[in-house]
Amino acid sequence: MTIVLINGFFLGVLYGLLAVGLVVVYRVSRVITFAHGEIGMVGAFVFAALWLDDGRPLALAVAAGVGVSALLGAATELVVVRPLRTKSRISVMVATFGVSNLLLVFAVRRWSLRPRFMKPIITGGGVRVSGLTIRPIQFLTFGVSVFLLLALGLLIARSSFGLRLRATALDPIAAAEAGVNVNLVSLGSWALAGALAGLSAILVSSQVVFSVFFMTGLMLRALVAALLGGLTSITGAFGAGVALGVTEGYLGYQFLAPGVVELTLALIVLVVLALRPRGLLAAEY
Amino acid sequence: MKMNRLVRLVLIISAFALIATACGDDDSADSDDGASVDSGGDGSSEDGDDGAVPVEGISEDSITVSVVAGFSGLFGEVIQGIYVSGMETWVEELNASGGINGRQVNLLQVDHKETPDGGVAACQEVLSNGSFTAVLVQGTEAQAAASDCLNSAGFTNLVWTASDSFIDSWEHSYSVFPTEEGQGELLAQFVAENAAAGDSIGVIELNVPVYTRIGDAFVAEAEARGLDVVDVLTVEVGQASFTPQVLRLQEAGASTVAIFVTNEAIQIASDAAAIDYSPAFTGALFEFDFVTQAAAGLLEGASGLRLNATIDTSEYADFQALAQKHDRSGALDGEAFLYYGYGLLLEEVLSQAGDSPTSDSLVAAIESLDGFETGVLPPITWSGGGLVGSNAMFPTVCCSPDNTWSASGPPISGE
């Protein structure tokens, strides 16, 4: 049992990391983006092409992968989200779903559907904990996640960009009247979320089956984590992701009938949202 | 929603109308075909100058055949590449060497879109596009729906495989490979023959019909053969971790794990390694080279059965040389090799159908095959009256130095 709980914890770290990206976008745009996973996936494939196929230096490949995802995030804001700003949020969400599908179609044509080998960016024997080998890439992912939580927290709470971001999130019209370039803030937050997606995907890619769909299944769980966390709380989303991973591991081990894990998780979400519609840890601006 | 229902209703009515029409055509063709053959035609059946009646898909200088697959579905891009590398290489070579009895073979791509509705639409297209016959080379529910529809229309076709429930009700659809259930049973036979005393088996199957059909048939046959099946676990599409399942099987003492999954095999093997669990992996639907190449050694030692020969054979080397001769720069792999094998089988069937092919002579040709060898597919026999061409599969083991599967013996037949 300890094995599945530890494994669930590290799986939950992946969910949490991806959920954080969803929260960054939601805080400013009030939109749940369905393109987050695919934006990250494209970045990860660019990274793999440069690092594994072309033999470019790791740092350069990571920068390029993260950069491509950041550009895709910014492009999504510029081309899809901004023109729909006066429309309902549902329209924007559906539009991001369209972006997700477009990126998938592009990726299938470019990289095919077949899985491919993805070497972890750090290798080694790993650490044995209660019968489970924790690989270096899992520790790195956890470390990067904690660093990002702190960095994002500081960025939002202490920086001028964070101040403008919070002002835009609270009331974009008032923020604009106060001199905040709302368009730039929105563009910046989508680019930031895109970069987060790219970095997350690069870290995740060697821990799951690496194909163009590798983020799709994970994003469903990340969305649940973001919802449970309250959609506005970065730490809440990350914590909910970890809790989700541990719960999933426990349920998967205890209840073997097909669909029990999914059904139970769905029930948990419904109960939490019924009792606390704003999520468990919704943050104030 | 109303619009969807209306469209569906129109489609259903159209389907029935087409099927009825096709049945009528076929009946008349059957009776007329006899005249065509009996007249001892000189191959100019379409001209009718000798009293012969035109046969759909046959002209003086060509034979038209539909190739049905998911050309635009989820796997469309991959399927297209495999088709071009495999079947088009075959047909170009065939036509360059004179075709079949002086006729060029003309392949028409028909898309089943990987959905049952798409399968029925593909069937309708085959029935109306002037094809002599059709080969259904890929797909699960979509190809079953397409072949079932063609069967209902009395249209003779070759389908790569299907479930027992379809085969039992068919008369005009010929399965190349063992049925899904037959594949599961054959694997159980293979595992039983290679099992050591005290071996126990754990099973992991993907919660998707074709996977569970093969997996369940494996379990039933394994238990019937006295093997100790300790647990059967179902996993879901998109599941990120299989640690709970492999831990369960480890705790249950399974020394062999039969997996009925595809890409998931990589994560299953990885999660098993993380808990120091190294069972003998076997199973079905994961014996693709692209799976083991992505697994990069994780599935070393896995064994199983696959439908076509591996790429470490001389037949594959011949195919590779041929593909290079035809400037194929796309996918050259085990799957393209399989499609090339379909071509060789089709070539034999069309050749046996005679100088003046008819629907009757096509059936006679198919049912004349007895242990037909391509070196790519297992020996094909339809001469006994059954609709399943082969009850054999190729034993294979992972891996060659390039992480592809290796041959581990001649095809194994069901008992």
Walk me through this protein's architecture.
The complex is a heterodimer of chains A (285) and B (415). Chain A has 285 residues and is mostly helical. Chain A has a domain of 195 residues. Helix content of chain A is 73%, strand content 2%. Chain A contains 11 helices and 2 strands; from the N terminus they run ααααββααααααα. Chain A has a two-stranded antiparallel sheet with strand order 1-2. In chain A, strand 1 and strand 2 form a beta hairpin. In chain A, helix 5 packs across helix 6 and helix 6 crosses helix 8. Chain A is globular and about 60 Å long. Chain A starts with a helix and ends in a 10-residue tail after the last helix. The mean pLDDT of chain A is 89. Chain B is α/β, with parallel strands linked by helices and 415 residues long. Chain B folds into 2 domains: 191 residues, Response regulator (Rossmann fold), CATH 3.40.50; 144 residues, Response regulator (Rossmann fold), CATH 3.40.50.2300. Chain B is built from 13 helices and 13 strands. A 5-stranded parallel sheet of chain B has the order 2-1-3-4-5, with helices on both faces. Chain B has a 4-stranded parallel sheet with strand order 7-6-8-9, sandwiched between helices. In chain B, helix 1 runs parallel beside helix 3, helix 2 packs across helix 12 and helix 9 packs parallel to helix 10. The termini of chain B are far apart. The N terminus of chain B is likely disordered. The chains are: A mainly alpha (285), B alpha/beta (415). Chains A and B meet through helix 1, helix 9 and helix 10 of A and helix 2, strand 7, helix 8, helix 9 and helix 10 of B.
